[in-house]
């Protein structure tokens, strides 16, 4: 009896995760104009990773609707996380930089200036 109860609980969580991933996919596609896209994408791939982890315990359930290689899903979640939080290749370039003691065009030391990158 306990095994059936545990299996049912896993199946319920698995199906909830599938529904959550589908909802996040809609947000990822439709939320781009509002800045939601990378956050929804990161969360979606993290949830899909959870689905991939649980699926081997639940062969009686429908398989994940997307390829379920756990390492690939972790990599995708990390990539989207970087986009969501402006990390790594998604980090914004600084708008201004301070240049100290730069030589001017006449070979003399100029004053401190702010210059655009």
A few lines on this structure:
The chain has 117 residues and is mainly alpha-helical. It is 53% helix and 7% strand. The protein contains 3 helices and 2 strands; from the N terminus they run αααββ.
Features:
single chain; mainly alpha; 2 strands; 53% helix
Describe the structure in your own words.
- By secondary structure, the protein is mostly helical.
- The chain has one domain (2-97).
- 53% of the residues lie in helices and 7% in strands.
- It is built from three helices and two strands, in the order αααββ.
- The chain has helices at residues 2-30, 37-54, 70-84; strands at residues 96-99, 113-116.
- The chain has a two-stranded antiparallel ribbon.
- The longest helix has 29 residues, at 2-30.
- The radius of gyration is 24 Å and the shape is elongated.
């Amino acid at each position: 009896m306990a095994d059936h109860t545990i299996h049912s609980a896993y199946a319920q969580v698995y199906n909830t995760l599938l529904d959550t991933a589908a909802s996040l996919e809609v947000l990822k596609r439709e939320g781009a104009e509002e800045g939601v896209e990378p956050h929804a994408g990161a969360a979606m791939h993290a949830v899909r990773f959870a689905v991939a982890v649980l699926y081997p315990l639940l062969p009686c359930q429908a398989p994940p609707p997307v390829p379920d290689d756990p390492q690939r899903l972790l990599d995708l979640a990390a990539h989207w996380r970087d986009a969501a939080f402006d990390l790594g290749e998604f980090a914004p370039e600084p708008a201004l930089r301070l240049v100290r003691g730069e030589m001017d065009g006449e070979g003399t030391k100029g004053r401190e200036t702010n210059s655009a990158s």
